[in-house]
Amino acid sequence: MRRTVRRRDQDEGVVTTFVVIFSVLIIFVIALVVDGGRMLAEHRLAGNLADAAARAGAQAVSEDAVRRGSTTVLDEAQAESDACAFLAGTGYSCVADAEGNRVEVTVTGSIDLLMLPGGSTTVVGAGNACVAVGITDAAC
Questions:
Q1: For each successive 10 residues of the chain (140 residues), what is the average pLDDT?
Q2: How, if at all, do strands 93-99 and 120-130 pair?
Q3: Which pLDDT does position 124 carry in this prediction?
Q4: Phi-psi label, residue 113: left if phi above 0, alpha if psi -120 to 50, beta otherwise
Q5: In terms of residue numbers, what domain contains 107?
Q6: DSSP code at position 133
Q7: For 88, phi and psi rounded to 5 degrees?
Q8: Which pLDDT score, from 0 to 100, does residue 51 have?
Q9: What pLDDT score was predicted for residue 6?
Q10: Which among 111, 123, 75, 41 has a CA at the least distance from the CA of 83?
């Protein structure tokens, strides 16, 4: 009768494999936190810039329309120009649309990812503002 001798060192390499897999997962989670946080911050910034640009455009009130007593007092062409001029130098592209007493602005930019594969991603923000004429409860 032959006895089989069992070696105690059959588990060699298990810890190494665990450490390698765990290290890769930790690096991926760190990449998600870093780049994900940067993307969220950039989306918030784009939205804030779009809102601010819309408010800047909504300040383009036509004095002639106010003097005539018109309910539409926004100079649409000037509002669109002012909204996009507000974003000059920010690195965002601007599309402004003024209609009636309302200005809508969409900004588009990109963010370079530091750790996640994919290079860069597009960031879009939208905002609007309106000119209130008189004292009313109605939104424009």
A1: 61 79 94 92 96 94 86 90 94 94 95 85 94 70
A2: unpaired
A3: 96
A4: beta
A5: 11-130
A6: -
A7: -60, 130
A8: 96
A9: 58
A10: 75
Distance of CA 77 to the CA centre of its chain: 26
In a domain, 27, yes or no: yes
- The residues, any chain, with a CB within 8 Å of residue 34's CB and separated by 6 or more, are 114, 115
Q: At residue 98, what is the residue type?
A: A
Read off the tokens for 39. 């993307």
Measuring CA to CA, which residue among 116, 128, 129, 127 is closest to residue 43? 127
CA distances (Å), origin 77, targets 48, 52, 93, 103: 22, 18, 18, 11
Please indicate, yes or no, if residue 36 is contained in any of the structural domains: yes
Please compute Rg for the chain using Cα positions. Answer: 29
- Model's pTM, two decimal places? 0.78
Q: Which residues contact 136 (CB under 8 A, 6 or more apart)?
A: none
What total of structural domains would you count in the chain?
1
| Beta strands, E only, 11-101 | 93-99
pLDDT of res. 118:
77
Nearest to 73 by CA among 8, 32, 133: 133
Residue 23 lies in a domain: yes
d(CA 42, CA 120): 12
The phi and psi torsions of 78 (rounded to 5 degrees) equal: -65, -35
* In a domain? residue 17: yes
